[in-house]
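Could someone model copper (II) ion with this protein?
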Amino acid sequence: MTARRVLIAIVAGFGLAAALAAARQDSPVLVHPGEYVVEGRVFGMPRAEVFTEDYDGPPVVGDAVTKLPELSPLAPGNHTHDVRMDIVAQRIEIAPGVRYDAWTFGGSVPGPVLHVREGDRVRFTMKNRSAERVAVTPPSTGASPFLQAFATADLQRPEAVAVPMHHSIDFHAATVAGDDKWQMIQPGESIRFEWVANYPGVFIYHCGVPPVLQHVAMGQYGVVVVSPRNGYPTDGLVDREYVVVQSEFYLTEGEDGLYALDFERAARKDPSHVIFNGHLLALTTHPLTADAGERVRLYLHNVGPNDQASHHVIGTVLDRVYYEGNPGNDWRGLQTVVLGASNGAVVEFIAPEEGDYILLDHELADAQKGAIAHIRVRSRTGEDTGIVTSMGH
Ligand SMILES: [Cu+2]
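Reply:
Sure, complex below.
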């Protein structure tokens, strides 16, 4: 073979390899005219539709929406998810004796956890029902795993209230024009739009109506977990997974015993409570669980709205950290992962031995205000011999 022929053969070989590699990638499905693909990602969603509808059904609908700390299972391949998360006001408890009238997505703070795969499409509908009293407890439990979880146990014990207010939603996981999809809707109005999860990660969604600090501090946020198309390198090793969201509250007690947002306090970044999963007791009296030797994965997010978090698990090392939940940001052996307001991470550790492990914000003033979670690790036989002592919490 001449040198030229060898060169042609090599070039042809590369071409074939590239074509095979491309064929192995799932090719994105374009649904609407005007959509287009750049580097495997789908852009050019149709305009959002703002409308009125005669809807008084369940406020949260869809198989992919769960209640913290649970994550819905994913079917193989890419899918389109129909999701509804209505805006409702609820009087909720975030610590024993601390109740306030929250502005929520779906009825809890944080709102539902949405789980999709990179490349999935979300057909999203949201009605602003802030002027109605909408019960988030039965009989609407069949509409979503989220509402089902509400029916069994809920620390926030929501009571429907009416607080008419304009709102919006901004999904950090989406790549769309904010002035269109994140537009504000009035009480009684609905909005519908689509987005494709182009990037994997642990993302916040929140209301974006100014002053955004007020709307987020009132409770309008939640998380979307977008699992990578090809997974994380450690997927096959993980035994347990939980979603843990930290957020700040800025509340002061009124004369009637009900609490209310103290906006001045929020503007000064002086939280009254810094807590996981929406209640001081969410992950203390109800610890996460694992068996010794298991690999535990946490989908962590720090909502803020103002301050960073420095998450550490006492008695272990964060074996793997995928910063922001992207498998390309693959860190090893962190003692603490720092998350700014609206940063997320997928963190994993090996549960070392039987005992009580504490996840905390190592900015200790925040731990003092509630940012503590317990992970109860049983012996390797799955038994709990009860030898664990309190660490003062
Ligand atoms: Cu709002």
